[in-house]
Queue: 4 jobs
Job 1
Amino acid sequence: MTADKILDEILDSIYLAKDTTNIFPTFPENIRTSHIYVLYTLYQLGREARVSDIANKY
């Protein structure tokens, strides 16, 4: 691969990543990043969890 081809692929990837973020809905104003992490951790655990379970996974 030439340097021009690699650069084109990198720029295409960045452009597609930007478009992908526009697909997702925006979160309400009161939602913080920590809320998203907690929800994701609960999803990963796949069951009811205690605060300590989330803290250990976090």
Note: Residues 32 and 38 are 10 Å apart (CA to CA).
Job 2
Amino acid sequence: MNSDTRYAVAYIAARLVVGANAAAVYDYASGEWISISGNVAWGNVSVYDFKRRTHVSGSGVSGRLSLYDFGRAGHIQLNVTGAAFDGYDFITGRHYNGTVNGRAISLYDFGEGKYFTYSI
């Protein structure tokens, strides 16, 4: 999973769990706020990533979302249960999982073999 996909997934997962609007996500690895915003609901996601100038959107039911990253031209599976999430990045063929605690997000990328932290 590349850094662009990680912060987008962290942002979407946090928005779903917290249920609050946010106009950006902070990536602790890069030390920057990344502008990303749009509609995030349990059945439908459509956000615009201003850094990459592209959309990430998709739909689903019961906390299972099938997303499409238009910038990377690939699918991402995102499953959210309570404050936990997991999924699969079809572009890299790697799994990920994480948790949301308030506005803080911890994401473990199995491809990188380490944790990444974000906040909204």
Note: The chain is about 15% helix and 55% strand.
Job 3
Amino acid sequence: MDLNNDMTTRVMELLGHNDAAQIRKARQDLHRRLAFIGGSYPQVAAVAVFGAGGELLASSRYFPVAEVSIAHRDDFGAAQAS
């Protein structure tokens, strides 16, 4: 089993076609559901959902989420470029 593929599939199915605004509205429910998904794997510390601009939208670890952005990170920039 490929953990990354499994996690990605489960989170993408959870999010569906929701945009950032819809994800923000559902943060509390998403927090609970992401915690369930991540909790299925002892090697997963947290599951986080970031918006296209790098802003943290939802997290399995914290609710409410902090105002955090990863826009400045090199790995985020590389992911956006690909």
Note: The two ends are 25 Å apart (CA to CA).
Job 4
Amino acid sequence: MDARFPGIVEPTFHAADDSASCRAAERCGFGLEAVLPTRPPLFPVEGRPHVRGGSVRP
């Protein structure tokens, strides 16, 4: 949460096939929030948003 904007949490996103980004996000306190469906052609792989303090959802 940004001190300038209390109550607003900015998520971080990565592609589902990027397991290193997933581990890094979780180590920094960003729990997996959801798995987003593919949206070809711009997003050919599932997306994974992480939110600080979020719950881990497979």
Note: The longest strand covers residues 47-52.
